[in-house]
Amino acid sequence: MSHLNYMEKLLDGVEVEWKVLAELGELVRGNGLPKTDFTDTGVPAIHYGQIYTHYGLSTETTLSFVSPETAKKLKKVDTGDVVITNTSENLDDVGKALVYLGEQQAVTGGHATIFKPSKLIIGKYFAYFTQTSTFFSAKRKLAKGTKVIDVSATDMAKIQIPIPCPNNPEKSLAIQAEIVRILDAFTAMTAELTAELNMRKKQYNYYRDQLLSFPCSSVGTQGDVEWRALSEMAEYSKARISYTELDDSNYVGVESLLQNRAGKIDSTRTPDCGNLTQYNPDDILIGNIRPYLKKIWYADRVGGTNGDVLVVHPTDTAINPRYLYQVLADDKFFEYNMQHAKGAKMPRGNKPKIMEYLVPIPFASNREKSLSEQERIVTILDKFDTLTSSITEGLPREIELRQKQYEYYRDLLLSFPKPHSDEAA
Fold first, then answer.
1. Is the dihedral of CA 398, 400, 401, 406 positive or negative?
2. Residue 180 pLDDT exceeds 70
């Protein structure tokens, strides 16, 4: 039986009652807990900010701890409780839920609400429901604030949750448990692929370090490697291109460059006047704002960009442009770039210093051998790039498909019809 047929059979003819969260358990607003209270060991502690930066849907262990003395002042989280965020700078992170499954009682602080489920609902069932568009629409109506968005515990208690078979608690919990089991299975598949991707990334970083680590850090020749300043083999593009030749695909602003060497996406806006910096195939585009974001792209077309993006144009035919890209995509380059960046809140790369960056040239005295070695290094690193960074190939694509599949079935399982009066409202 297919997943779809099984789920349709599971929910076929099931009566549903929408109950406000306050009817399904106790809601306790957290208090206190600044990060300065954290200790290396002690009582498990859940900080609201960590719910949308560290945890997934559930956890058996906490990232942080507090002393027993501090824990006495904080609200308690028992096994099966759900900790919900009340505050964030964006609506997506407000109302994000974390099911605590640890054996030792934990604590939480302010900007979080503890939902202690009654016998009518499973905490994880509720947590999965918080990921649906229905829940998002409900919390959006209750949200207050602009820069900092808040949905209070009092308002959170008003959100309606669908309860199957309300007149038969045993059957209701059995259906909720089955929905949780199915969604857990999809989540586990995605987690397995993500773990595999992380392992590949570690492997990739290992090979990158091995292939691009040469025994020298100053200008000159050491063994089979010669170190040359970037300015000896490349320059910043001086070419210009009219805005009329640019579109979403070939205009590259810093916002359309992806973090962590992940390439670029189409731009959401293009210039409507003037001439801009032109780039050509084999040029290397580097985001010049906040270098630690590691924004870099190897150009495969003609296009244009602005002053927030550097266009490094290779000029030495003895250097494989793709090899130069791999050298500049290395963590060592971005660390160097940050060391010389200007500004604190919004650091910018130092253009003259970037051109002083030392690039290792293997077998520099033998052009043919050097280009052959550069090509070998490029071939290996490009294969790992495809596996770990491409959005259309390799594991990231598979993870994306799994995530869409999970979201489809989650919405199918948790989309229950509301009473007509509610729909009209």
1. positive
2. yes
Averaged pLDDT for residues 373-384: 90
Tokens of 386: 């495809």
**Tens digits of residue pLDDT in 355-368:** 999 999 999 889 99
The confidence score (pLDDT) of residue 408 equals: 84
Domains of the chain: 18-165 (3.90.220.20), 215-367 (3.90.220.20)
Short-list 208, 204, 216, CA closest to 361: 216
Distance of CA 91 to the CA centre of its chain: 16
Report the 10 Å Cβ neighbour count for 216: 14
For residue 328, give the nearest of 319, 344, 198, 237 by alpha carbon: 319
pLDDT for the residue 395: 75
Q: How many Cβ atoms are within 10 Å of 305's Cβ, its own excluded? A: 29
Instruction: Report residue 208 as tokens.
Output: 């990158």
Q: How far is CA 264 from the centre of its chain?
A: 15
- Residue 29's DSSP bridge partners are 113
Distance (Å, rounded) from C-alpha 200 to C-alpha 206?
Answer: 10
Say which DSSP state 249 is in: T
